[in-house]
Write a structure and sequence with these properties.
Elements: H1 2-5, H2 8-11, E1 25-26, H3 37-48, H4 61-71, E2 78-81, H5 83-95, E3 101-106, H6 111-118, E4 122-127, H7 136-146, E5 150-154, H8 166-175, E6 179-183, E7 204-209, E8 222-226, H9 228-237, H10 245-256, H11 258-280, E9 285-287, E10 294-299, H12 302-311, E11 314-315, E12 317-318, E13 328-332, H13 336-350
Parallel strand pairs: 1-11, 3-4, 3-5, 5-6, 6-7
Antiparallel strand pairs: 2-8, 7-8, 9-10, 10-13, 12-13
The structure holds pyridoxal-5'-phosphate.
Pathway: Amino-acid biosynthesis; L-histidine biosynthesis; L-histidine from 5-phospho-alpha-D-ribose 1-diphosphate: step 7/9
Cofactor: pyridoxal 5'-phosphate
Organism: Clostridium formicaceticum
């Protein structure tokens, strides 16, 4: 009986899947396993001052003030979300309804499509080109034909790690008839941003998160940056008190200790490139160039390899044996020890015996 009441678009929805299991190395969600323990102590100290009996600052004014100063933007151009996931949903709630279309490249982060289905819209997908490079000409062709209300570009892309050149992003923003969202969840591991363009293009939204480089996935804090006009619209759909006061405190501590995190991020980038070289030397593994904190690898016997890792409580992301990511696993760059463990287990699973130094 209840199933008859469910909206048609929700009936067919395949929800986002999260694997919960005991691990010795959790390398499946692009978290930052290298964050300094000192940061926890600082967060704990700051939490002692908190009045948890009161509702949080609904618009995260203090957090936006700090971010605005760091990014040289007006706090009015900033919106904080319960993860950037919530901002994706807010964008769709504000602009997409039944009959409306969004445009994405595939493969990419799954939540654009899921959230679009939740709000009743549909998703047009443009495949990435050879070796998962961005197919600019085809993307623009489809964009002109379909006239989507919202376009999502993920830069660097998850799960491929590839990037889109700035000039191509600019041309897409200029050719688009609707909103263009540039998701920069992994920007800290890439270094190039289009944040400066929000002052020139009123249809542009840049998304960021503290879940990746900043090592704060547990607090669920992301932010969006856009023109004041666009922000005014997004604030209409923002739920009140959407960021808990504990998370606001954690985010503030994180931003105030940026140098500490910048150091960790540099180390992860070095470790990523080293891992890419090491894995490329293993027969049966193809590593795609990554600008994120993860590596996408096409692996022979991917299912068995994934299972071998899982049997040793090392969790990576496996994409199954169908679609463009068939036979691929995505490995988050972890601590040095975790990375060494992954390499050892991969070699074991693939029956490689030669010495490889990580
Ligand atoms: C490209 C991209 N965007 C957004 C997110 C969501 O991040 P969060 O909701 O933790 O801010 C992720 C998480 O994996 C991602 O890969």
């Amino acid at each position: 009986m209840i199933s008859n009441l469910v909206k048609e678009n929700i009936k067919s929805l395949i929800p986002y899947e999260v694997k919960e299991c005991e691990t010795v190395a959790k390398l499946d969600a692009n978290e930052n396993n290298n964050v300094d323990y000192l940061l926890n102590q600082k967060i704990a100290k700051a939490l002692m001052e908190l009045k948890v009996n009161q509702y949080p600052d609904t618009d995260c004014c203090e957090l936006r003030r700090i971010l605005g100063k760091q990014l040289r933007l007006s706090p009015q151009q900033l919106l904080i979300g319960c993860g950037s996931d919530q901002i994706i949903l807010m964008i769709l709630q504000a602009f997409i309804g039944a009959g409306d279309k969004i445009l994405i490249h595939t493969p990419t982060f799954g939540m654009y499509k899921i959230s679009t289905q939740i709000v009743g819209g549909s998703t047009i997908e443009v495949p990435l080109g050879e070796d998962f490079t961005f197919d600019y000409y085809n993307f623009v062709k489809v964009m002109k034909k379909e006239a989507p209300k919202v376009v999502f570009l993920t830069n660097p892309n998850n799960p491929t790690g590839g990037v889109i050149p700035r000039e191509q992003i600019i041309r897409i923003i200029e050719h688009a008839n609707g909103i263009v969202v540039i998701d920069e969840a992994y920007v800290e591991f890439y270094g190039e941003t289009v944040l400066d363009l929000v002052n020139y293009y009123p249809n542009l939204i840049v998304l960021r998160t503290l879940s990746k480089g900043y090592g704060l996935a547990g607090a669920r804090v992301g932010y969006g940056v856009a023109s004041k006009e666009l922000m005014g619209i997004l604030y209409k759909v923002k739920p009140p008190y959407n960021i808990g006061s504990l998370s606001q405190v954690a985010a503030k501590v994180c931003l105030e200790n940026k140098e500490m995190l910048d150091r960790v991020i540099k180390e992860i980038i070095i470790e990523r490139d080293k891992m890419a070289d090491v894995l490329s030397d293993i027969p049966d593994i193809k590593v795609y160039k990554s600008h994120g904190n993860f590596l996408l690898c096409k692996v022979g016997k991917a299912k068995e390899v994934y299972q071998h890792l899982a049997d040793h409580k090392v969790l990576v992301r496996y994409f199954g044996e169908e679609g463009p990511l068939k036979g691929c696993i995505r490995i988050t760059i972890g601590t040095k020890e975790e990375n060494q463990l992954v390499v050892k287990l991969l070699m074991e699973a693939l029956g490689v015996t030669k010495e490889i130094a990580v």
